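User: Structure tokens for this complex, please. No commentary.
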Amino acid sequence: MTGLQSTGDPFVRFQEVQKSYDGETLVVKNLNLDIANGEFLTMLGPSGSGKTTCLMMLAGFETPTHGKIVLDGAPLNDVPPHKRDIGMVFQNYALFPHMTVAENLAFPLHVRKMGKAEIEERVQRALDMVQLGIFGGRRPMQLSGGQQQRVAVARALVFDPKLVLMDEPLGALDKQLREQMQFEIKHIHDNLGITVVYVTHDQSEALTMSNRIAVFNDGIIQQLAPPADLYERPDNAFVAQFIGENNKLIGKVTAVDGDQCSVELDSGEKVAAMSISHAGVGQKSMLSIRPERVMIGDEAADCDVQVQAHVQELIYLGDHIRTRLTVCGREDFVVKIPNSTDRAGLVPGNEISIGWRTRDCRALDLPDNL
Amino acid sequence: MTATDIQNGPTGAIVTADGQPLKVSLARALRRQRLFALALVAPLFIFVTISFIIPIADMLFRSVENSIVEEILPETVKALESWDENSGELPDEAVFAAMVADLKVAKANRTNSKVGQRLNYERSGMSSLFRGSGRKAVRIKEGPYKEKLIKADKDWGKVVTWQVIKQFSPNLTPGYYLASVDAMQTPDGSIQFEDSEKAIHTKLFVRTMIMSVAITITTLLLGFPIAYLIATQPAKISNLLIILVLLPFWTSLLVRTTSWIALLQQKGVINDFLVLVGLISEDGRLAMIHNATGAVIAMTHILLPFMVLPLYSVMKTIPPTYMRAATSLGAHPWPAFWKVYFPNTVPGIGAGAILVFILAIGYYITPELVGGTSGTFISNRIAFHILNSLNWGLAAALGAVLLAIVMVFYLLYDRIVGIDNMKLG
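Assistant:
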């Protein structure tokens, strides 16, 4: 965590939180999560994973079925949403169409009964912060999507909330604008030092912006870690497959030796791997290798693990070439080869040898769908 | 294609590849579409013209039309032209001669009572005067006509009789419109209003307005929460609620209205219940039907869907996140509702209110059945003139005034709220 000091008590704490809508299934299962003051924490997961429910419980629009949520030392369970002092940016911005941009920004200040001069000053400061200084008199409908997004962010910040929640705020924008807004939100967070809880299903968004990412699936946090850890050291098969691209090889664990293990693949090869979350000796495991960690040609010769591969398909992507290979009986093995590399022998139909280092190959649990 | 590929005609206008001017070519390409669109619109256009525009134009014409006097009494009308109605003296012999001649023709054509009936709207007694004089005029073979006609009916000797005939001899008359606002033109040309207790039309217009406004307000107060509920409930419940709102449409209007009689009458269900629980005494049974109260209750019930549906369709488009955003920004749910949710429902309120008000203002059957004397609308008076008194000119004038009032309200609404700000769905 860059620039964050752990100061004893967390700023936000989910303590054994459970949520059920129908009394039969749990949408959120026993959630424990601490968020530090000033942190940018992202809840990442597929739809239905429980991440938005967690955010709504924090905002006060849903009540936990069980457990406790604490904000800044005070339990939130019985505090109504309008008294929580939490700013929120909604997926479709939820800007009030009958008010101008400035009136939208002034709304939280009016309900707090601030003086007219102070309101004007704060509104102008918030508009300047998102580079919309001259748009105060416009209606939200007269602004572009990106501008509306900025207004929504400014409105969530203008009353200096303790905490800002963002519920897929960039979902409605096109790719280029989304990337630009990611940086803008990140900069605002860095400049103001506020605590942000961000919900998204877009992993690149999560990796770009967050201090830590909580990967949700099936109502459970699968892994809570900084972006680099999450990508390079996934704890389980779900995280490995959900974040980034992943090559999987299935095999049986034959022996465990310290932090390594040996695995006999279904196709017969024996490979060494990092022993992470497999079920133990004699059980099936999924090996995970990132596509850019697989070497070809001369580099492969230096690797701990070397196997033969059959080239299926090349896709030219400018900065790299995506190569689909058949490796150890699996046809969906992908390797990313930088454009600068010598591509001798890389022709569909050819047999080549590839390799990887043992520490880049992680033996994980076998997901249900394999 | 580069810029130089675009061919220019001799005048510099752009032409197509085969040398046709582009505009001509475009017009031809669009002609088929236009004809097709026209063919789609034509049946409705013809229907509306025949069933709506022509009757309204005819009604507006009837409200000023007055050719009957000149048609039946052509000689008299011509002779009266030289008579000064403000002189205070009877017309001369020539006018009386013309009247006798006209009456003879009218009697033969049996039209004398028609003109009498028309003039009777303006001055009572004219009907019997013409009916009686027709027969008597036949017997007047020679002059002096003046003396003999006055002898036949002494009303012919009154200046006012002739003043009325002269006043209403032109082909067009403002008389029906004046009558529709309880005024009449005196023979000297000034306009005189009825005493306020006799001013039945004004009273009915005002009552129609007040009751329509009351009905609009009650439908809004009852319809708003229902519409909100339907708009915010999950589809399964909201569909059921919509069906319940529409259910009254499946029942005959007469059945709904008469069931209110069963409920509200003095020996009816509600009064019986109130007596039973002891809220009112046996003698103190409430009069809730055959008066204004009954009309408002029954019409509120009947017009409620017209308020709920536009409100619902507008509320459905208001994202629930607006309220959430408002509360997350620190607003208590109640101010959040008034400052954020409510302003966004105004287009629906406007549409619903205009719809209900305009329907209420012209409602006929329900006030007729449950309105009694204190709950009748101007439409009941119009129906009376069409069906009973047969004074279609006055009925047309009343209808036109009603139309004008609706237009005024529409324009007022446009001024205050803006008609673009109305959404029916």
